[in-house]
């Protein structure tokens, strides 16, 4: 399978716990994006990487959020001290050279 | 700033009929791309079709076509011969240099 993969697909956690999500992009795609989608809304941009460099972060990305892409391949998104408002679908996408972003299946986070 | 407006929260269509989903956009960029994605209940964002701002011809991909009217800043998606499997959320998005900006989406229901 050469598509974007994300793990885990579902995560249920208690408020105050830390969670980490992983995204494996399509190989050779050097740009990787993270989006957040709450119920009934379109996805909203969080951050993106060009290779290992994080080039832009949204104001939605509070200090409790951190994203890395250490070797320019997979990326992780960590949320510290989760809050109920963090409950959402977290989507990862990688960019082809023809400017089309291809999305993974997403990680659905539920904070109790 | 870029903005996408989708004015149809929900659409109901009979199977085999054609359907048009509306999308208008706002941008100050000269070069941009317009995208349509389909999101079934599973949550994955599936790329359908792309239109570049400098493309003179409307994009087509199988049963999907994009009715691009640059002067009106509209990029409507046309699905011909709708099928039951077309039932899903549909998102229009615009991309300038970097991230995608999505609209609120339209929920399409195909009735047998």
Give a quick precis of the structure.
The complex is a heterodimer of chains A (112) and B (112). Chain A has strands at 5-7, 10-13, 19-24, 31-37, 44-50, 53-57, 65-68, 75-79, 88-95, 101-103, 107-111.
Describe this structure in words.
Chain A is mainly beta and 112 residues long. Chain A has strands spanning 5-7, 10-13, 19-24, 31-37, 44-50, 53-57, 65-68, 75-79, 88-95, 101-103, 107-111. In chain A, strands 2, 4, 5, 6, 9, 10 and 11 form a seven-stranded mixed beta sheet that branches. A four-stranded antiparallel beta sheet of chain A has the order 1-3-8-7, with no helix packed on it. Chain A is globular. The model of chain A has no long low-confidence stretch (mean pLDDT 93). Chain B is mostly beta strands and 112 residues long. In chain B, 0% of the residues lie in helices and 53% in strands. Chain B has no helices and twelve strands. In chain B, strands 2, 5, 6, 10, 11 and 12 form a six-stranded mixed beta sheet that branches. Chain B has a four-stranded antiparallel beta sheet with strand order 3-9-8-7, with no helix packed on it.
